[in-house]
Design goal:
This protein is mostly beta strands and 216 residues long. It is 12% helix and 33% strand.
Length: 216
Amino acid sequence: MCGRFALESSARQLADYFGMQTPEVYISRYNIAPTTPVLARTEKELTYFSWGLVPSWAKDVKIGYKMFNARAETVAEKPSFRNAFKRRRCLVPATGFYEWKAEAGGKQPYFCHLDHQLFSFAGIWEHWQDAMGNEFFTCAILTMDAQGAMRTIHDRMPVIIPREDHDVWMRHENDRIEGALECIQDATVDFSIYPVSKKVSSARNDSADLVQAINL
């Protein structure tokens, strides 16, 4: 799964990476958690979504609390995700994510990264409106079976879309999904991993020291 991640990047780096203007309000974050705002690239812009997808047919926005991940293996068929996968894919930038492993003394968090460089999670987004007309824009991150070093700490990991495949992932012409399916079926990546402070286990903590390696 993917339940916490970091985006340690300047607005200029993000703009250069996506070739799009960064929102006026932007800061690096080190402990991004479900239900909080996450930055994502859609077909047209870089904008914010609430992390936890709320399908258009949902009766209550609270359904998003448990729908922050979508399994890549079933995202094209699941009623909760298939429309978003077909028509509203996005890219969620990150510089690393956290995963927890059960060890002696409790669950130990690890930081997973690609040389601390920017990369993009495969995401999907939705638009939902309540009875009062209030609009909510929400998203979920796709996950897949763990690969490489990730297998030592968890059986799942987020799907990464390489930069050279961004345009394929974002292509929505005529609701065709073949290219997007190939992106997630062919996804391969091996993260570097190291232990970090258990302070990251509390979403209230959000500081640069959370991504620093510790000695066990």
